[in-house]
């Protein structure tokens, strides 16, 4: 089980029983779940609520809350926002 399985379950599959799996606690990260949810504009409000509660609730409770709160999506794909790459153009070297 990976964090992507958990995100897919929260967004698309809607099974809601992954927290019963023994590998759940090893794979689950509330921070990463909130991070992925916040990258979809329609889910930012849900991500803010989960972010404010992740220090108070247990991992299973965060998963259950996300599962019940986030509406079912048509696709689990979330465009991951990453740092823009800088142009690494070669500077002309002066001949000495």
Structure description:
It is a single chain. This protein is mainly α and 96 residues long. The protein has a domain of 67 residues. It is 47% helix and 0% strand. α1 runs parallel beside α5 and α3 packs antiparallel against α4. It is elongated, with a radius of gyration of 18 Å.
What are the salient characteristics of this protein?
single chain, 96 residues, mainly alpha, elongated
What secondary-structure arrangement, pairings included, does this model have?
Blueprint (H helix, E strand, L loop, with lengths): L2 H11 L10 H4 L2 H9 L5 H10 L5 H11 L27
Largest sheet: none
Q: Tell me the series of helices and strands, N- to C-terminal.
A: HHHHH
Radius of gyration: 18 Å
In total, the number of strands is 0
Q: Please, what is the average pLDDT?
A: 81
Kindly name the structural category: mainly alpha
Unreliable spans are none
What's the shape? elongated
User: Helical residue percent?
Assistant: 40-55%
β-sheet strand percentage:
under 5%
Our measurement of the CA-to-CA distance between the termini, rounded to an integer number of angstroms, reads 59 Å
Number of contiguous helices: 5
């Amino acid at each position: 089980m990976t964090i992507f399985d958990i995100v897919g379950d929260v967004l698309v599959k809607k099974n809601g029983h992954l927290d019963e799996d023994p590998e759940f606690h090893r794979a689950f990260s509330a921070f990463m779940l909130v991070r992925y949810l916040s990258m979809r504009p329609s889910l930012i409000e849900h991500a803010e609520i989960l972010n404010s509660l992740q220090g108070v609730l247990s991992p299973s409770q965060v998963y259950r809350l996300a599962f019940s709160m986030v509406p079912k999506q048509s696709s689990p794909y979330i465009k991951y926002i990453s740092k823009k790459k800088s142009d690494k153009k070669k500077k002309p070297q002066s001949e000495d």
